[in-house]
Design goal:
Blueprint (H helix, E strand, L loop, with lengths): L1 H21 L1 H4 L5 E2 L5 E8 L9 E10 L4 E10 L5 E12 L6 E2 L5 E5 L4 E9 L4 E13 L2 E10 L2
Parallel strand pairs: 1-3
Antiparallel strand pairs: 2-10, 3-4, 4-8, 5-6, 5-7, 5-9, 9-10
Amino acid sequence: MKKSIKFRKKVCITLAACLFACFPATAMAAEPQVSPDVDMVESEEHLEAPGVSVKAIARTRIIFSRQSNSVGAGYVYFSSRKTPSSLNATITLQQAAKGSNTYQKTPQAAVTKTVRNSRTLNKEFRFTISTTKKYRVKVVVKENVGGTVSTRTYYKNLD
C-alpha cells in the first residue's frame, strides 16, 4: 500500500514538472510571445481598471506575403490568457517609395474583426499592391479584459 502511494506521488510530481516545462507561456510568462513573423511592436497602451492585471495577449502571429504582382495577402492570429469581453483587430495597408522608410496609409479600406467572449482572433486579409512600391500592414489590437482596455500596434513588412 505504501509503495503505491509513493509511486503515485512520483508520477504526479513528474507530470507537473513536464507540464511546466512544456507550457512555459501559460504557466509563467508575463510578457506576450510575439512571433518572429512580426517585424515590430510600436506601442502599448493600457487603460486600467482597479485591481486588474494587463498584458493578457499571450500569442501573436502576423503573416503578410505577395500572392502576385497585384495582390498581397495574409492573416493575423492573437490569443489571450484570459477571455476578454472583446478583442478587436484593425489591419491597414501602408506604402512607401522603394528606398524610403517613410510609410503612409493607403486609400484602401481597413480590414477589421471583433470577437466577443473569445480567447482567440483569426482574420485573413487581402490588399491590392503594385511592384513599384514597398508595403507593410499595421495591425492595431484592442483587448478589453475586466474593464481594462489594452491597445498594441504591430507592423509586418510584405515578404
